[in-house]
Design a protein that fits this description.
There is one protein chain. By secondary structure, this protein is α+β, with helices and mostly antiparallel strands. It has 10 helices and 11 strands. Strands 6-8-9-11-10 form a 5-stranded mixed beta sheet. The longest helix is centred in the middle third of the chain and has 58 residues, at about 220-280. The chain is rod-shaped, with a radius of gyration of 50 Å.
Length: about 475
Amino acid sequence: MMLRFRVVATSLAVALPAAGLAAFLLDRVRDADLRTAIERVVRAQVNDQTRERCEADPAWFLTGPLEGRPKFGVFESEDPDAFPPRPKVVEQPYELFAYDNEFIGSSSATPRMPAEYRDAVRTDTGSMTGRFDTPRGRGAQVAIATGWENSVCTYLLGRIEPAPHQRRDLIIAFVTTFLVMFGLALGASAHTFLRIRRLAKAVGESARNGFPAIAPDRGTDELSAFTFAYNDAANELKVRKSRIDDQDASLQRLVQTTEDEVGVPLKQLTEKLGAIALADPARRVALSGALNDAHALTARVENLAAAARLRMTGGAGIAQTRVDLKAVTTGVASRYLPVAHAAGVALQVSVPDAPVSTTGDSGLIERALSNLVDNAIRYNRPGGQVTLTLARAPGDARFRLWVADNGRGVSEEEFRGLTAVRRFRGDEGRNRRAGAPGLGLAIAREVADRFGLTLDLRRPGAGGFEAELSGNAS
């Protein structure tokens, strides 16, 4: 949209000055023509016949027919020296006025000669041309010295009316030039704009199809050179993409191998230790350390595998299916029950009778919930309690899945740090600061964002900590 605006703005910037220049030049040409015409006419009047006619009847000296000339009786008025009003006459193409040595007009119809014209006709050139304003536009005038000394016609001032429809013609010239120049500029800019659009479309298709070369632009300017530069870059991108794809495939195999050959056995070992601890309370204390270590190692491996899955190709390869949230919740509770018992924490779970499901990846959502439960147990106190609740109100399109504990809670500064976690970096375990959030919470936040869920962290007034996952139920 911005490029289109610039194209139109550029076309206007070209067309407006061009139209103004065209109108100005037309006005100058007309003015020059008028000045030349009136100067020729007036100089042609400097002859003996004109002098005789002017000196014989200076009061009504005017070239052309004198229609409406007053009758002789007008001159027999009480004040014979007063000039009667000039009669209305048919408009003449030009007029000629006479002045004596002192620039006094020969009749009341004679206009006052401007001072600059007086100075000019007294010089060696003896003439000056210029313009004068009329209701119909600007006409041309010329003042010349006749050389008739001591005469009422020592100087002559000739005027020629402006051409008919002068202003209309200037407007037409301006509008016509503007439209032509605007069309030409817009056409030239539009051609470049369309070339850019075609190149942008070709680049987009190339990127979607693995960066094949695009067809060269047929021009000979810098825009054409872009296609060759892009094709060179596309070849390099294809090589790099191939390497990334190979690395991604290798990483997927590594993650799958780690989950199958390390994660699953560790998970089974943790379940066996938990089952022994639950079945034999006398051995619970002895097994609690081994159980916690095995559980921590299992969670670490599963978190690293989840982080790798979220990172690979931006998570684009993660398929979204229907996830049974009741099964996920009860599975996480069953898995963490021995861990909670070993830590002296009571773990309670509550799920509705009706099925509750959403859309996403079952393994990643289970890992996000496991991290929230693990934190609630890890940062609790002996004798504390953790509740895991799944709820969906009748007719409500959303579900709520939250973990609450009555442990020591977190300070305001710690809470700000937890709520600031938005994305994992992958080095949370290696560069861990005291009190800093680990990889688990970052993965929970990432999983929530990836599948359109909401993760809320709260500090209840009564103490403890709450973490809630919510989203659309399917």
